[in-house]
Recover the amino acids of this structure.
């Protein structure tokens, strides 16, 4: 069964499936889907939860071992597998299919993946898991959909806002759902559930971050390394968490790769980048960052993600973010 995030809660109300696959590159929505499944599992008596990070060279035998190794004190178990690469390989595909044979009312698998392309969605292992459980495809919120998404979030928080205020917030966060969610939470605290006007929103957003992650991105794209580094340092001082900064940088790198590929196919930049003021920034970045270098930067972003999650022997996340910012700006890191 394939559903979207809006259908997940209704699906969970009917009872837990043995397998859940969450596929998408929108961190906030992916996290919220995971939280819904975890809450439903706890309510159903799944007191034991095991987390497996399926990075490069992951031993997929651990998944089957976990399925067969139930705790003496917990009769039900949720196994959560995070596979940031998205492709489990032959061994992983085989293990995931074998897992379905072990599925029971006492086991639930939560598999978290990046966006799957058409060939992956049609692969045998995905089809097998989907037949046994639920595939939740998380799609990005487009620029056109963003005002409606923000309005829904405001309503869910008990807030109302002027249409113009909603539009300003949508433009301000530029597609970053994490940033939008944080702004809504702050408005809820500061505005005492009063209607949000344009003045209220502009004052709130302006005071929230002198150093914006979007300023960081724009300065890096423009090749302004010194300004980008100062902005990064400002973000750290302001208390912005590393995952938010990494999300913005990695998202921009993936976007550059996609835009570069489509430009090579003959598509015009104006069609690919609708915000006119960003077109010269994208052009500048692509002129100095070839595809191979962008792919390398994306791999470095994954290393930083591991460091953020506490990977042993990893450098400080902020050191990694500094290097990534310099590289995106066209400078070699020291």
């Amino acid at each position: 069964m394939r559903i979207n995030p809006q259908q997940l809660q209704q699906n969970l109300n009917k009872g837990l499936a043995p397998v859940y696959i969450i596929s998408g590159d929108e961190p906030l929505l992916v996290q919220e889907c995971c939280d819904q499944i975890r809450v439903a599992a706890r309510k159903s008596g799944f007191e034991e939860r095991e987390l497996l990070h399926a990075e490069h060279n992951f031993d997929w035998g651990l998944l089957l071992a976990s399925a067969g190794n139930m705790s003496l004190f917990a009769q039900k178990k949720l196994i959560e597998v995070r596979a940031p690469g998205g492709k489990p390989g032959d061994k992983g595909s085989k293990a995931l299919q074998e897992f379905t044979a072990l599925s029971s009312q006492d086991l639930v698998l939560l598999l978290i993946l990046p966006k799957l392309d058409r060939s992956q969605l049609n692969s045998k292992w995905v089809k097998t898991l989907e037949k046994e459980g639920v595939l939740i495809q998380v799609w990005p919120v487009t620029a056109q959909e963003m005002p409606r998404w923000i309005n829904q979030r405001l309503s869910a928080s008990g807030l109302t806002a002027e249409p113009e205020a909603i539009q300003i917030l949508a433009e301000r966060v530029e597609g970053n759902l994490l940033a939008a969610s944080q702004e809504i939470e702050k408005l809820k605290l500061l505005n005492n559930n009063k209607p949000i006007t344009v003045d209220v929103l502009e004052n709130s957003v302006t005071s929230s971050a002198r150093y914006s992650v979007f300023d960081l991105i724009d300065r890096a794209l423009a090749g302004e390394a010194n300004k980008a580094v100062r902005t990064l340092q400002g973000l750290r001082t302001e208390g912005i968490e590393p995952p938010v900064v990494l999300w913005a940088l990695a998202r921009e790198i993936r976007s550059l790769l996609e835009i570069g590929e489509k430009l090579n196919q003959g598509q015009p930049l104006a069609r690919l980048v609708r915000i006119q003021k960003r077109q010269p920034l994208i052009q500048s970045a692509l002129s100095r960052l070839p595809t191979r270098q962008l792919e390398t930067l994306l791999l470095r972003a994954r290393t930083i993600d591991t460091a953020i999650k506490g990977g042993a022997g990893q450098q400080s996340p902020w050191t990694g973010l500094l290097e990534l910012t310099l590289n995106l700006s066209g400078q070699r890191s020291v």
